[in-house]
Specification:
Blueprint lengths: L1 E6 L5 H17 L4 H4 L7 E7 L2 E10 L5 E8 L8 H15 L4 E7 L3 H6 L3 E9 L2 E9 L2
Parallel strand pairs: 4-5
Antiparallel strand pairs: 1-2, 2-3, 3-4, 5-7, 6-7
């Protein structure tokens, strides 16, 4: 059974589980410096998806000017990819955003992940940019 939990506390299990996923995916697999993956600031909301109590996918959400939710650090453990967990996690975030009357969601997608986000209704906006030396594009999804 898939379950989503969230927290904005750095001492929460959700945050700790998210860091383990992010270190596995971004640091070990993609070579991102660990300093980018550890924030130490309260404020963002951390989401983590669990299957039968085991963490498999995560994301963090920062609230920007105008109440826009900026989704960041979406990651899924290698053995759990292709099973729809990240899609379910993002739908859960979207559901929370709609309840909060958020006008749109935005994220910086690795170019290799654009098709995944397009299937969820996101559209590419603007020019590309580098994040952790990897090509990205901003993608938005209007909710209102």
């Amino acid at each position: 059974m898939f379950e989503v939990k969230n927290s904005n506390k750095l001492d929460s299990q959700v945050y700790r589980d998210s860091l383990i996923i992010r270190e596995d995916v971004f640091v070990k697999e993609q070579g991102v410096p660990i300093e980018i993956e550890i924030e130490g600031e309260e404020g963002p909301k951390y989401y983590c998806g669990y299957v039968d109590g085991n963490f498999v996918t995560c994301a963090r959400v920062k609230i920007e000017d105008g109440g826009v939710w900026h989704i960041q650090r979406v990651a899924t453990l290698k053995d759990s990819r292709g099973k729809g967990y990240s899609s379910s996690l993002l739908r859960s975030i979207e559901e929370d955003a709609r309840k909060a009357k958020v006008p749109y969601l935005t994220l910086g997608a690795q170019d290799t992940a654009q098709d995944f986000y397009k299937k969820l209704g996101y559209e590419v906006v603007g020019e590309g940019f580098l994040d952790a030396e990897m090509p990205h594009h901003r993608m938005d999804k209007k909710l209102v």
